[in-house]
Design brief:
single chain; elongated; Tetraspanin; glycoprotein; Tetraspanin/Peripherin
């Protein structure tokens, strides 16, 4: 009876990890296709820093899932205790990392306020500077979510940006773009930079981002619970199989 149970667990673990392996292979394929595609898709993605970062996130996630699936499949079907132990340790590391991130997010949640982001924007945002990570990230956010500043365009008053560019009221990332030209050309750029409300985005990024993610908050929460549950079962299965192998 114990042997039948162990055999069933082995094949269940193999099938489960085979799907993880396929998922990782698919993500790796998509990421590599975007980076190496000769049809010009790479240039489209590279124009948006947020999308370009997302490609590398997909590659990293795909690589991790590929490795996990491979270790789980080989460890289960070959009944290799070394591979199963490595699989268990990797899952445990991911699980503890996710737990640590959740705990840190809870304790540092007061730093995610509108006032905190406004203060940091005033201190560090430089305008059009692709070498500064903080500035590039904010430019990507304002361009992606069609917003300006944290609460409003007024956040750039008495800021580092105004000291660097005294002739500009808002940065280029706040200016509206022509949708018919693929968001390449600005609409009334000079008027926008001089402070005209008709040619800039007037909604703050804090509200824009919160409104966007509120749509997916329950889906994200449910997905997080499913992922954590799967990880727990994967660790239990791996350890049971590890202990059952003679």
């Amino acid at each position: 009876m114990e042997g039948d149970c162990l055999s069933c667990m082995k094949y269940l673990m193999f099938i489960f990890n085979f799907f993880i392996f396929l998922g990782g292979s698919f993500l790796l394929g998509v990421g590599l296709w975007v980076l190496l595609d000769p049809m010009g898709f790479r240039e489209i993605v590279a124009a948006n820093p947020l999308l370009f970062t997302g490609v590398y996130v997909i590659l990293a996630l795909g690589g991790l899932l590929f490795l996990l699936g491979f270790l789980g499949c080989c460890g289960a079907i070959r009944e290799n205790k070394c591979l199963l132990l490595f699989f268990f340790m990797l899952i445990l590391f991911i699980f503890l990392t996710e737990l640590a991130v959740a705990i840190l997010a809870f304790f540092f949640r007061e730093h995610l306020t509108r006032e905190y982001f406004t203060r940091e924007l005033k201190r560090h945002y430089q305008g059009h500077n692709n070498t500064d990570v903080f500035t590039s990230t904010w430019n990507a956010i304002m361009t992606t979510f069609d917003c300006c500043g944290v609460g409003s365009p007024d956040d750039f008053e008495e800021s580092l940006f105004r000291l660097i560019s005294p002739g500009k009221v808002v940065p280029e990332a706040c200016c509206q773009r022509n949708r018919f030209l693929g968001d390449v050309e600005h609409v009334g750029l000079e008027q926008c930079l001089s402070g005209s409300m008709a040619f800039r985005h007037n909604k703050g990024c804090y509200s824009a981002v919160v409104d966007y993610f509120e749509t997916y908050i329950y889906m994200a929460g449910a997905l997080a619970i499913v992922v954590l549950t799967v990880e727990l079962f994967a660790m239990v299965f791996a350890m049971c199989l590890f202990r059952g192998i003679q």
